[in-house]
Each structure stands twice: as C-alpha cells, then as structure tokens.
Specification:
It contains 14 helices and 23 strands. It starts with a helix and ends in a 5-residue tail after the last helix. Strand 22 and strand 23 form a beta hairpin. It has three domains: 248 residues, Bira Bifunctional Protein, Domain 2 (BirA Bifunctional Protein, domain 2), CATH 3.30.930.10; 43 residues; 95 residues, 3-Layer(aba) Sandwich (Rossmann fold). By secondary structure, it is an alpha+beta fold. The structure holds adenosine-5'-triphosphate. The site of adenosine-5'-triphosphate has 15 residues, from strand 10, strand 13, strand 16 and helix 10. It holds the Pfam family HGTP_anticodon. GO terms for molecular function: ATP binding; bis(5'-nucleosyl)-tetraphosphatase (asymmetrical) activity; glycine-tRNA ligase activity. It comes from Candidatus Daviesbacteria bacterium GW2011_GWA2_40_9.
Length: 444
C-alpha cells in the first residue's frame, strides 16, 4: 500500500513537470528547497481555483467584500499578532545526523529513526525557531529596516478592518476575503507543494457580534460550507474528514478550531482550517496601535470588538489535492478527471487531418472564436487517439474535431473526457454546449 502510494506521488510529480503544471523552483541552478513554479497549465488550474473561490465568496454573496493587502507590513503588526514571539515551532535536532524535525511530529521522528539509524535515538531538547522570513527595506547598507514577509495573509485583513467598515456599507455580520502569498521558513518542506516556503492562501475573516452561542453556529456553518464546497468541486467525499482540535491543541486565543483533512497518499493531511479567533486579532491591534477597533452598530448604537470566524486554505495545497484526487489510469493511460471549472483548458480543437487545408482552416476559425470565451487548446500532431490521450492527461473535458462532414453540415464531433463518448454538435451551438456542460457538471 505504502509503495503504491509513493508510486502515485512520483507519478503526479512527473506528470506535473512533463505537462507543465508544476516545476521545481529555479531548477537550472539546482532548485531551492520548498519553492515551486507553476507552468502554463498549472497557472490555469490555480487561477480557476482562485476565481471559483472569489466568485463563491465575493461575487455571489452580499455579506463579503474582498481586499488585497500588501505582503510587506509594518513589523509592529507581527508583534501584535503574536507571531514574533510565538510563530515558532519547537524543534528537536537529531544528534546523530543533525536532522531537525518538529517536536510535535512524533510520527516523523519515529520514521526518521527507523529509516536512518534503526534502534538509535538521540535528540536535543525542543528549541524554538522563528518561521517568519526576514527581508530588508531601504537602499543604504546599515540603515535598512528589517521587516518580515507576511507569514499569513490574515493580518492584512485585521489592520484594514476599520478602513473597510468606514469605506463600505457592509454591516455585521460580514466577511472580508483575501487571496495572496504567504512565506514561512518551514523546517521540513515536503510532499511536493504540500508544505512549501512560499505559498498562496485564500481566507475569509467573518466578523460576528460577540456571542458564544451564535458565534459557534457561524463556526459550524463555515465548516459545513467548505466541506460541501470541496465536494462539489470534485474531491471524493470519502477522502475528506473534519479534525476538531482539542482545547490543548488549538492556539491559545482560539475558542474552537477544526481542520478539514484529505486522505493524501502519505496519510491524512490538513487541507484547510476553520478557526474561531474570538476578538484576539482586533483587540491586539487596538492595544498595539492605540487605534480604536470597535464596531458601532448603526441601528442600536451598541459598540463592541467583533469576533472573527476564520476560514483559511492553501491555494497550492488545494490544487495539489485536486490533482491527486483527479488522477486516474485506464489501461495505462492517464486521465485527469478535474472538474471542468478547474480544468486548465475547457476544450481542445483539432482538424481531423493536418494536411487538409480546408479542415485546418475551419478548425482554426472555431478555435479562435471559442478562445474569446474559454481557454482552448489546439493540436494537429499525430493521430486523433494520441491527441485525445494528450488532452486527457491535462484534464481537458471536451475535444472538438473538425472532419469532412463539418464542411458539409457545420457540425463537429465532441468527445467527452470521462465517458469517451462522441456526439455531433452544431458549430454555432458549441459555446452554449461547453457552458452548459461546465455549469451542470455532476461529480461522482
Ligand atoms: P500545518 O499544520 O500543516 O503547518 P498550519 O496549521 O500551520 O498548517 P495555517 O497557519 O492554519 O496552517 O494556514 C492555513 C492554510 O494555509 C493551511 O490549511 C494550508 O492549506 C495552507 N498552508 C499553511 N502552511 C503551508 C505551507 N507551508 N505550504 C503550503 N500551504 C500551507
């Protein structure tokens, strides 16, 4: 089982590189640990994921607005948030081979011993390391200001809480959504992009009136919301589960915390978290900035610091789990059964024969026309079977072939990735056809 699973990760890493999803960062220089680059199809997958998320949060809902805060922030932010003192994971170092591992990752410690020096165990006491990545602002050596690249995107929302309330008509309960990069000096990056040192997060901070019972209802609402969201976008239901944090496992300020975990090839792994942060962040910023963070209810005049129910997920982790979950093989051929909304290309267009100018010309016209609305691939190499196989590997849901019949009746063959069934469709209906299938796609 373990071998099979490792094998699966090897296949996914190889496919990702071969087809342009994900490459090792600065690979020609030997790479940089925990850093990855997205290729032409990977960037589309990630963009589609972010767009779906933004649509669900900001576009459709009345109660959530979006922001895009800077990666570099005044260093006082990280003192207020507690990161400077507490954004550290106690580590232990192996005295035998100097490997450093997180003290709370007992399984990894055991696995390390077993692999490198079975029966021998000699670790240092846990020590704290700061996970925030340092940077320096200013051009004059010696006069530069030391800052941190943000270790989470959350704080950009909290420091702008008042700005958002004052500049919009949004009223509690409401959320502020954000997507952006975060940086952490992870000690043990690994499992492909799962634990990277530069990654993207998508978060909603949902602000509610301080009330124990009601806020817990909101917490439960978001837990269910995200579980349903990922299932609807195609993640297998039986590979997802909630993991509630026991009081001693959660951050000291959290009133409740749950992770959604995915059954990755290497075991259950955190996908995202829903955290009840109470008034921790806003109160701390009020204290550190001496700026009032209270919200005033325009109807009742009540004033309070709201509580925050946070939903936080990694874009890269989600993209990786979508890739893993979509990966399937049929008679040695790879089919990436991505939800059409996430698929890098919605369709591919082929002329049946590359040496028949009338077919190529017609197919080119369809390709250019559809490209105005969708990402559409083009292929005229090899035979149709090979082109189907090539599109299946990157998850393209529909392949459109222009053949001799097309020249007579303005119809094309549309072949479905998942069923391999072919049907005729009218050229002038293709746009509707694709839209309809994308929007009404049912996941298994
Ligand atoms: P872990 O326990 O795996 O380190 P965490 O509990 O520190 O994660 P949070 O701080 O809650 O993670 O971050 C929220 C989300 O951001 C995570 O659920 C994950 O999807 C993503 N994330 C966090 N750290 C990384 C990382 N190093 N690489 C990729 N994604 C990450």
């Amino acid at each position: 089982m373990v071998d099979q699973n490792n094998n699966l990760m090897d296949k996914i890493v190889a496919l990702a590189k071969r087809r342009g999803f994900i490459y090792p960062g600065s690979e020609i220089y030997g790479g940089l640990a925990g850093i990855w680059d997205y290729g032409p199809v990977g960037v589309e997958l990630k963009r589609n994921l972010k767009n779906m998320w933004w649509k669900s949060m900001v576009q459709i809902r009345e109660d959530i607005v979006g922001i895009d805060a800077a990666i570099m922030m005044n260093p006082r932010v990280w003192e207020a948030s507690g990161h400077v003192e507490a954004f550290t994971d106690p580590l232990v170092e192996c005295r035998i081979d100097h490997e450093r591992l997180r003290a709370d990752h007992e399984d990894e410690i055991k696995a390390h011993e077993k692999k490198h020096h079975p029966g021998k165990s000699d670790w240092t006491e846990p020590q704290k390391f700061n996970l925030l990545v340092k940077a320096y602002l200013g051009v004059i050596e010696g006069k530069q200001q030391e800052i941190f690249l943000r270790g989470e995107i959350t704080q950009g929302v909290h420091v702008n809480f008042k700005n958002v309330v004052d500049s919009t008509r949004i009223r509690i309960p409401f959320g502020i959504a954000q997507i952006g990069k975060a940086f952490r000096n992870e000690i043990t990056p690994g499992n492909f992009t799962f634990r990277s040192r530069e990654f993207e997060q998508m978060e909603v901070q949902y602000f509610v009136k301080p009330d124990e019972k009601d806020s817990l209802k909101t917490f439960e609402y978001w837990k269910k919301y995200w579980m349903d969201w990922y299932i609807k976008l195609g993640i297998s239901k039986d590979k997802l589960k909630f993991k509630d944090h026991a009081p001693d496992e959660r951050a000291h300020y959290a009133r409740a915390a749950t992770d959604i975990e995915y059954q990755a090839p290497w075991g259950w792994a955190e996908f995202m978290g829903v955290h009840h942060r109470g008034d921790w962040d806003l109160s701390r910023h009020q204290q550190y900035s001496s700026k009032e963070m209270k919200y005033k209810d325009p109807e009742t005049g009540e004033e309070y610091i709201p509580w925050d129910i946070e939903s936080s997920m990694g874009v890269d982790r989600s993209a990786l789990f979508f890739l893993i979950d979509a990966y399937s093989e049929n008679k040695g051929r790879v089919i990436l059964k991505l939800h059409p909304q996430l698929a890098p290309y919605k369709a591919a267009v082929f002329p049946l024969l590359a040496n028949k100018p009338e077919l190529v010309e017609k197919a080119k016209k369809i390709h250019l026309d559809l490209k105005k609305d969708f990402m559409v691939a083009w292929d005229e190499r090899g035979n149709i079977g090979k082109r189907y196989a090539s599109q299946d590997e990157i998850g393209t849901p529909f392949c459109i072939t222009v053949d001799f019949q097309t020249l007579e009746d303005e119809t094309v063959t549309v072949r479905d990735r998942d069923t391999a069934k072919q049907e005729r469709a009218e050229i002038n209906q293709l746009r509707n056809f694709i839209n309809d299938r994308i929007n009404n796609h049912q996941t298994d």
